[in-house]
Amino acid sequence: MTAFKHTVALAALLAGVAGTASAQVAYTGAVNLGYADIDGDTDATNLTTDFDANIAFNSGFELDLGLSMNRVDVDEVPFDLHMDRASIAPKYNFSNGLTAGLYVEKSELSIGEDVDMLSYGLNGEFAIAGATIGAFYGETDIDGLDDDTTDWGLNATYAMGETLAVAGGFARTEVDAFGEDLDLDLWKLGAAYDFGNNITVFAGANWGDFEGMDVDTWGLGASYDASAYTPIPVIASIEYAETDADMLGDVDVWRFGVTLPFGNKGTASAPLNSVAGSAFNQSPNTISDALVTAF
Fold first, then answer.
1. What is the DSSP letter of 226?
2. Domain locations in the chain?
3. Which region is the signal sequence (predicted)?
4. CB 16, CB 8: distance < 8 Å
5. d(C-alpha 169, C-alpha 283), whole Å
6. Cβ neighbour number for residue 2 with a 10 Å cutoff
7. CB contact set of 201 (below 8 Å; sequence gap of 6+)
8. CA 65, CA 87: separation in Å to the nearest integer?
9. pTM of this structure
10. pLDDT higher than 80, residue 16
11. E strand spans, 148-198
12. What is the topology classification, in CATH, of domain 2-294?
């Protein structure tokens, strides 16, 4: 976890430095605490912590921050499966709809042994009339793999007022290893609709193709905004999801979550620990992204 502490500390430092240069700051984001009951050939549970935030300064400078921590406890397995990610993406908003910047994401997977991955590169997006189209290009360094790994992807979101929001994207990781070119593809689609009366329904699906090994996940859920009855904003959510993976078989997942939103209220949204939520928060690392969404 040392790398995650350093990444979060750096993000906090950058935010503090930028804050001293500007008195006017707009921010939005959420913290989600989740629990998942996983039912398949082997039963498991997953405790999750997710954080996502955007900090925008009046100078045009923006900072995206992300954190995801998963602790999967598998029955009759003597160790836990850990899947952790931390990201930071400084960028500049040119006030004409165009935003461009950099991204760095550190991922740690532990399946008996730890595998560290560092993703970095360039990203940008263009916003117009409620729609945002984005793209990224970079690399991922994987411990123990000296060969080249290239990441690229496209994504889009559309908001219809504060009632409906949809998102979709495609990401590919190209690995040149052992004399072969391996393509790891991940498609995403998600939507959230605010019915009013504090109720939002969300749905999403992922389709992953890892050189003939498919990992397909879909989920449907609902959330209730209980902020009127609590001293701080609180949103409770529930989701049912299914994952069909060639190496795992069929897996049923019930997810429960508590979201603490902060900052400016945006459009209808899905919890960070949901399948739809992953479509709104695309990761440049298809390997960790597919695993996190599957569980």
1. -
2. 2-294
3. 1-23
4. no
5. 10
6. 7
7. 192, 193, 195, 220, 221, 222
8. 6
9. 0.87
10. no
11. 149-160, 164-177, 180-196
12. Porin (2.40.160)
